[in-house]
Amino acid sequence: xxxxxxxxxxxxxxxxxxxxxxxxxxxxxxxxxxxxxxxxxxxxxxxxxxxxxxxxxxxxxxxxxxxxxxxxxxxxxxxxxxxxxxxxxxxxxxxxxxxxxxxxxxxxxxxxxxxxxxxxxxxxxxxxxxxxxxxxxxxxxxxxxxxxxxxxxxxxxxxxxxxxxxxxxxxxxxxxxxxxxxxx
Length: 184
What we know:
eight-stranded parallel beta sheet, 2 helices, elongated
């Protein structure tokens, strides 16, 4: 009986695990299998067109790649988690605001200075990571995202007054912030 349970446990655990594709080449001929793509450290001026074929892609991680913008076709994919840390984004690409099933968005350590009011369209968003960006204003539309549970704002210079205003605007959201700065 114990052996049967162990075999069933092994089968179930393997069935739920999925391969993480770490480059475009390994996905050739396996486009339907690509659920998670992690291109950490691969240098791209723009997102590879091959990604369009990954119709089941839920998790896209592109860190330290030099990305400055995203293509409009990205909203055709069923993305739930997008990680674009340590790239060269100076704005949140408009296509991000159209990813209706997005639950986790990590744009940490870029050069983003503004969050557009269109952020309200991300009604499934639960976690927003904006650490180490240049953001100085936060749109009230953030409060319209009922599913939003946490926003990481570490290493963003906010004084006590700005932090208090943000906490008042977003009372039900866990705001992760660095100690207040002595800045204006």
